[in-house]
Amino acid sequence: MDSAVNSAVGQALVLQQAQTAQQAQMQVFKEALDTQKDQVTALMESATADPQLASSGNLGTLINTYA
Hints:
By secondary structure, this protein is mainly α. The chain contains 1 helix and no strands.
């Protein structure tokens, strides 16, 4: 009976360690997804921004020639 209890405790500890490792992996995965979301959002915002005309000089003050 003592070995059955030891075995059950051992299995419980192994499962607890596996769960802790899985939680850590999920946290890293969520952080990676958040970083990617922020990068995609910044990229989309920069792609939709209207290009500005130059404020001085001979080029680009009437027509955006830098786009």
